[in-house]
Amino acid sequence: MAIPFIDLGVQRERIGSSIESAVLKVIGHGAYIMGPEVKTFEANLAAFAGSKHALSCANGTDAIELILLGLGVGEGDAVFVPAFTFVATAEVVPMTRAEPVFVDIDPKTYNMDPAKLEAAIAAVKAEGRLKPAAIIAVDLFGQAADYPAISKIARAHGLPLIADSAQGFGCTIDGKQPLEWADATSTSFYPAKPLGCYGDGGAVVLNDAALLEKLISFRVHGGATPTDAATMNYTHEAKYLNVRIGMNSRLDTIQAAVLIEKLAIFAEEIELRQAVARRYNDALDGYVTSVPYVKDGYVSTWAQYTIEHENRDALQLFLREKGVPTAVYYPIPLHQQPGYAKFTSGTGDLSVSEAKSKTVISLPFSPYLTAETQAEIVAAVKAFKG
Ligand SMILES: Cc1ncc(COP(=O)(O)O)c(C=O)c1O
Predict the structure, then answer these.
(1) Which atom of ligand 1 is nearest to 189's Cα?
(2) Residue 361: CATH number of its domain
(3) Relative to the CA of 85, which ligand 1 atom is closest?
């Protein structure tokens, strides 16, 4: 049988029947939008994240945009994002009319380099055209960004810190999740993510009740919050009082029902992911340019298992011929993307992002990857003599 890049089938076999009953229950009760499962899932997610609040939404991209909107980021603002990430991290910034400022990454963790963040903030301030407004750190491939260092910089400049944890939701530093340092954490439930649903989905976890109120409003067409409504005169339903320009970004009840079941086994799956990653590391260390480096005290959720190889493209072709699917995340850093090259404010040295985009390659990964299949993949990698 062909090796899948991300095998969702084993998990489906494991909890498929409980997911099916949960979905059928939603179909039966008919509250397809904002049904009771949405509230239950949000409560369970907040408990998992150790946060005061969790707000679900339609996808991980909207989750970041909702936070930016809630923070009041807009025209004339600079938002600092890594140059090496999925495009959604930067895409949401111009959607709010602010501008992304690209920051280089650490060569070992692939996450935002705190020293280069500091330099980018200084450069934007020196240029004087944009006002630094927020930082979005990304937990790339599942490993937490350097939140202790980045949050110090954020505090020193009075900037809110957002954790884009679409790939790393559940990751920890000394047992603490990114929200320990960030003002809000966003995640994605895209099916291939460590915590995925059966379609699109996303969420924000946060502790700030005032920010939560704004997110609730922006999530559904900028409706009046209780605070807004208390200060306004109206005779119709509060639901039809739209006080800000919002969006429609709700998590489907059916997806919430799926996620309740998946979240119940997520902590255990994060453990299983550690064992799979360890087996890969032990087998491949020394045979490729680099195996993933996870800092001391950090636990990755291993959204991807990403190695480096100097002859990456040839390796990818070779593995494809051997029946081993791979993926390149990401072949072009964001500052070189046609749609983003115009954002040059504060741009400094982005050479690490540029170099990594030529050498990274991700191997098949799932918490249920067997030692036998992994041995086949490893043997194929080792057979490459390029
Ligand atoms: C780092 C990062 N941010 C944001 C997103 C956006 O999530 P979604 O696809 O659910 O909109 C993704 C996932 O695709 C991602 O990997």
Answers:
(1) 10
(2) 3.90.1150.10
(3) 1
